[in-house]
Write the structure tokens for this entry.
Amino acid sequence: MTALLEVSGVSKRFGGIRALEDVSLEVLSGEAVGLIGPNGAGKTTLFDCVSGVSQPERGAIYYQGRRIDRLPIHRRARLGIGRTFQRLELFTGMTVREHLAVAEREHSGDGRLWKDLAWRGGLTSEETDSVEAMLKELHLESVAESPIEALSLGQGRLVELGRALIQEPALLLLDEPSSGLDSRESAELAAVLNQIRATRNEAVLLVEHDIDLVQAIVSRAVVLDFGRVIASGPLDDVLREGAVRTAYLGEPA
Ligand SMILES: Nc1ncnc2c1ncn2[C@@H]1O[C@H](COP(=O)(O)OP(=O)(O)OP(=O)(O)O)[C@@H](O)[C@H]1O
Ligand SMILES: [Mg+2]
């Protein structure tokens, strides 16, 4: 079976820093995989290389069997690669509904949204239905007309998630979705992610420091440390490995 995503021997440097060194991993269709490791391990850099924000210096990235590492970001998004960001990338002054509407139009429109930002025609009824369904799925109906700056961080993270999901990705890259959330908000996020996983078939690559959230979502994990894969396999096995406990959980070697 061809992997949905195949990262093969990818390396990326920033000056003297080896952010990624010969990294290989696979995500199968519909699978949830954890990408874990300490601060600075290269997790966000890997997401940047997969989504098209950065170019690897060496190696190749395949999606649905097709090489994508030279394609621009928007082409990869159209192929079905969605992502959320470690630092929220939302727009102040825009409401929750508007964020989802723009993402929906980007997905279903002809790709010329940014030439027609005024977008006088408004959304079609199918697009409106899709936005309503997403507000409902993420429990954001009560804040639909609120500007982004009025939301809690947890709600902001759900808007980011909705903006990615409304484009119906086959592969969703989640970069620390629980960062900054309190334990109640993290538990709600885990419930929403599990509900999404139960009703849709997209694959997830999850970067997350909150090990409870990782355990709630994924069954397999890849561990990065200083840009290298130091372990991979079933999550429980990986978490038992000494090198992982040292690197990730901060236990003495
Ligand atoms: N644009 C950049 N310019 C220079 N160095 C960078 C850049 N982006 C990342 N790095 C460096 O590359 C390494 C990997 O960073 P990256 O952000 O991918 O780690 P991470 O695993 O996502 O860490 P965190 O858990 O803190 O988010 C770090 O040493 C970081 O300082
Ligand atoms: Mg990061």
User: Anything to note?
Assistant: The chain is about 35% helix and 25% strand. Strands lie at 5-14, 17-27, 32-36, 58-63, 66-67, 81-83, 171-175, 203-207, 220-225, 228-234. The pocket of adenosine-5'-triphosphate (ligand 1) is lined by residues 14, 17, 19, 37, 39-45, 86 (CB under 6 Å). The two ends are 38 Å apart (CA to CA).
